[in-house]
């Protein structure tokens, strides 16, 4: 029994240490290498990352000081009910502000967003994928966007009833997803820390960094999938308040639907399974045959509900699977090793994969190319590639805003705000200041998240560490892009809040100790 108690925390400590080493590595690369190294998608900020970090720490310290002096005493008096009411009021006000922002800077974007948008318009006109829709080939090639297409068609039908522009409503729904995600992350922070002041900090930073992110204007999987990554985590942290069998079914449904919107959502479920399995190993209770059957039924129910939805939407959209042209995951790993683009999208790689027919032939060709590229790199060369990919993924607080092809495909001028466009559009006069501000916050968030590995009392927190390790490794191995981190932005904000909580506790303790010396 004693040996079990000694072994139990070893794996959890390993995850914390691994997360800490990973974040230190990312920060060292960002702080000391990024400025003097050229890499794809590199952003030119007004100040260096070190200067931005110093400014961020000073501003955060000053904000906490002013908060403690003038606001804290009022927050401490609030009851739980009053906090929830204020949180709801905050939700409504910020959502109205998000809608205003979207209306004033809205534009139509190209790349995959454009493909989805036009395909949706054609389906609304009666052109299903197998009945004349000009984007049938695209969805057979990339079927991972089918669920999002289905959601967009539903939103378009609602927009006609409300007499609202469909494309505008798609963006508003994406903004709503971000808004609800922030509410959920605040609730998680409150549950873990049981500290209202840290909840205020998470609201403050979440609002500045994420609530009015430029990405709320782009209706795509990055903002839509965010709601699923945080919802899975929210239900996980509140599983004691829900029937465990219903909870399991909900977890599976959310994970599988989230996976269909953005495949990397599944990383959260994998992290939960790993953490819970280790916890179960050392806290085993007698499981009866009836309980096993109930668990199996819950899993089957979750998968069945997802399966019915998946089959129904494919039938509704007129999707017909074509393995001859479908892209396998090995393609994205191969592209993630491209020397010319340092792991970002490269059309020559797409043409190479598409030159082979059938999934198995594509996979074989991709694996052969992966082996060839690995041999060409060698250990040192591959390490240099990983440094570049780390910079591509983590050295951009705007999450690669404006990088994608045909980004500003169609800009509208009627009833738009010139000032907001000057801030949010890449060519705007104030955009460089806005982008630098986002980078300052991002570097600060990454630094403070380091302190989240200390004093962990709730083992579920390790799920967040493990999920962040998972998405980081995924983007190092597969196609790189800062935007692919966006759906996990709430996770980083939770770690920022927990890290700040831990650091403030230490500082408070040291200040008290000095008083007694």
Describe this structure in words.
With about 525 residues, the chain is an all-alpha fold. About 70% of the residues lie in helices and about 0% in strands. The protein has helices at about 1-30, 50-70, 70-75, 80-105, 110-125, 135-140, 145-160, 165-195, 195-210, 220-235, 245-260, 265-280, 290-315, 330-335, 345-355, 360-395, 420-425, 430-450, 460-475, 490-515, and strands at about 105-110, 410. The chain has a two-stranded antiparallel sheet with strand order 1-2. The radius of gyration is 24 Å and the shape is globular. The model has no long low-confidence stretch (mean pLDDT about 95).
Brief summary:
The chain is mostly helical and 517 residues long.
Structural class: mainly alpha
Q: Averaged pLDDT, please?
A: 94
First-last Cα distance: 42 Å
Strand content: under 5%
Main-sheet strand order equals 1-2
What characterizes the major β-sheet? 2 strands, antiparallel
**Oligomerization category of the chains in this entry:** single chain
Overall 3D shape: globular
Q: Helical stretch count?
A: 20
Topology, please?
Layout: H1 2-32, H2 49-70, H3 72-76, H4 80-105, E1 107-108, H5 111-124, H6 136-141, H7 146-162, H8 166-193, H9 196-211, H10 221-237, H11 244-261, H12 266-282, H13 289-317, H14 329-335, H15 347-354, H16 359-394, E2 410-411, H17 418-424, H18 431-449, H19 461-477, H20 489-515
Antiparallel strand pairs: 1-2
Helix pairs in contact: 1-12, 1-18, 1-19, 2-18, 4-8, 5-7, 7-8, 7-13, 8-9, 8-10, 8-20, 9-20, 10-11, 10-12, 11-13, 12-19, 14-16, 16-19, 18-20
């Amino acid at each position: 029994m004693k040996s079990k108690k000694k072994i139990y925390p070893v794996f959890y400590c390993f995850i914390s240490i691994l997360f800490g080493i990973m974040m230190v590595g990312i920060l060292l690369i960002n702080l000391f290498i990024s400025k003097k190294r050229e890499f794809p998608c590199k952003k030119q900020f007004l100040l260096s990352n070190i200067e931005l970090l110093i400014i961020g720490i000073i501003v955060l310290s000053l904000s906490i000081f002013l908060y403690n002096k003038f606001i804290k005493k009022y927050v401490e008096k609030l009851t739980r009910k009053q906090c929830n009411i204020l949180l709801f009021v905050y939700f409504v006000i910020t959502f109205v502000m998000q809608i205003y922002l979207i209306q004033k800077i809205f534009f139509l974007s190209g790349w995959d967003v454009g493909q989805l948008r036009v395909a949706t318009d054609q389906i609304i006109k009666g052109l299903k994928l197998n009945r004349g829709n000009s984007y049938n080939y695209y969805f057979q090639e990339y079927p991972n966007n089918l669920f999002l297409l289905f959601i967009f068609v539903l939103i378009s039908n609602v927009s006609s009833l409300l007499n609202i522009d469909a494309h505008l409503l798609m963006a508003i729904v994406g903004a709503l997803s971000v808004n609800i995600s922030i509410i959920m992350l605040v609730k998680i922070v409150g549950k873990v820390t049981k500290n209202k002041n840290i909840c205020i900090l998470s609201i403050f930073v979440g609002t500045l960094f994420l609530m009015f992110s430029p990405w709320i204007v782009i209706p795509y999987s990055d903002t839509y999938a965010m709601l699923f990554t945080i919802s899975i985590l929210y239900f996980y942290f509140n599983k004691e308040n829900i029937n465990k069998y219903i909870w399991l079914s909900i977890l599976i449904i959310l994970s599988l639907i989230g996976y269909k919107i953005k495949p990397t959502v599944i990383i959260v479920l994998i992290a939960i399974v790993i953490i819970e399995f280790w916890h179960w190993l050392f806290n085993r209770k007698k499981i009866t045959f009836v309980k096993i059957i109930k668990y199996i039924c819950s899993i089957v129910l979750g998968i069945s509900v997802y399966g019915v939805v998946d089959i129904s939407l494919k039938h509704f959209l007129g999707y017909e699977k074509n393995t001859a042209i479908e892209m396998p995951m090995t393609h994205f790993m191969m592209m993630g090793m491209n020397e010319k683009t340092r792991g970002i999208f490269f059309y020559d790689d797409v043409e190479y994969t598409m030159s082979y027919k059938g999934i198995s032939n594509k996979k074989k060709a991709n694996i052969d190319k992966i082996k060839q590229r690995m041999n060409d790199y060698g250990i040192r060369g591959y390490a240099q590639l990983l440094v570049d990919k780390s910079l591509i993924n983590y050295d951009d607080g705007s999450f690669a805003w404006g990088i994608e092809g045909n980004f500003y495909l169609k800009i509208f001028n009627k009833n738009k705000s010139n000032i907001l466009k000057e801030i949010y559009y890449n060519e705007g006069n104030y955009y460089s200041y806005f982008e630098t501000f986002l980078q300052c916050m991002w570097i600060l968030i990454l630094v403070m998240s380091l302190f989240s590995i200390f004093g962990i009392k709730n083992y579920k927190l390790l799920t967040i560490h493990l999920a962040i390790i998972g998405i980081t490794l995924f983007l190092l191995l597969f196609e790189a892009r800062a935007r692919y981190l966006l759906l996990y932005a709430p996770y980083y904000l939770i770690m920022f809040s927990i890290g700040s909580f831990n650091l403030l506790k230490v500082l408070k303790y040291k200040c008290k100790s000095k008083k007694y010396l």
